[in-house]
Amino acid sequence: MHSVECAKPALTRLMWLHKSGEPPDHADHQITYDHDIVEICPSCNGATIEHLRHDCFDYEAVYDQYEWYELGPEDGARLRTLAARCDRPLEPFCNCATHKALRTSALALPSGSWDAIFEGSAHRHIITVSDGKKPAFTLVRTGVELPKPLEKPKEPDTEAVGFIFLAWPALLAITLFGWFRLVHLPWFLDAIVVLVAIPATFVGAGVILAAGKVILNRKRRSSDKQTARD
Ligand SMILES: [Zn+2]
Ligand SMILES: [Zn+2]
Ligand SMILES: [Zn+2]
Q1: Last-in-domain residue among 112, 142, 172
Q2: Same domain flag for 98 and 195
Q3: Among 142, 176, 200, residue at a domain's last position
Q4: DSSP assignment of 111-153, as one string?
């Protein structure tokens, strides 16, 4: 759980406490997979234990039952010190004293009921961790909602505004030029056409801009995929 001010950078893996079976995307996966991993924020030390129980015995109903145990920055920092006691914090089968104590107490933490319809908050809990020879997790509160990160108001897109104010007069000029060249009616009808052409070309410029953005986004996404594959 990040501190309130933390701008929510991604968490990094701090410790692997428990593993049973191989994950679903692994070649040796068989029906069940369990894990308890500790992730921590590199900037604020807020940490989360992710507890996953996967079961695909019934082909129709694959269960991915998650519980999340959140530690505030102070507890996260304590956990970081504890993890440093072990030479292999990311080894789920390590049996050092720290690993053993944390594993036992993590597995004893309560889980939310899965009978009800999935509700994220029912499976999110706040815990603390104690120091000492036999460190242990303790439940503080269950069924919590994470504070939502503050949403930044969208900045006006200056590039888009620039584009509109270039494309609009250009489009208007082309339209009027074409009109007087090819059609040209009595003056009062021409006046109406000009009046209509002003907002119509503005909308036209907007449509071109939107279409351009869609194409650009699609290109960007496919090139992202390309780099991901490389
Ligand atoms: Zn953070
Ligand atoms: Zn499975
Ligand atoms: Zn260990």
Answers
A1: 142
A2: no
A3: 142
A4: ---SSSPP-GGGGEEEEEE--SSS--EEEEEES-PPPPPPPPP
Contact (CB, 8 A) for 22 and 33: yes
Q: What is the residue range of 28's domain?
A: 12-142
- Beta bridge partner(s), residue 58: none
Residues 138 and 167 in one domain: no
Distance 42 CA to ligand 1 centre (A): 7
Query: Distance, CA 115 to ligand 2 centroid (Å)?
Result: 20
Distance CA 176, CA 204 (A): 14
Q: How far is the CA of 99 from the centre of ligand 3 (A)?
A: 4
Is 31 strand, coil or helix? coil
- Domain tally, the chain: 2
Check: CB of residue 105 under 8 Å from CB of residue 111.
Answer: no
The alpha-carbon radius of gyration of the chain (Å, integer) is 29
pLDDT less than 70: residues of the chain: 113-121, 147-154, 222-230
Nearest ligand by distance to the CA of 77: 1
Q: How far is the CA of 7 from the centre of ligand 1 (A)?
A: 7
Asked if 169 and 203 sit in the same domain, the reply is yes
Tokens of 127: 């815990």
Distance of CA 16 from the midpoint of ligand 3 (Å): 9
Are 23 and 96 within one domain?
yes
Tell me if 64 sits within 8 A of 52, measured CB to CB: yes
CA of 24 to the centre of ligand 2 (A): 5
Residue 65 has a pLDDT of 87
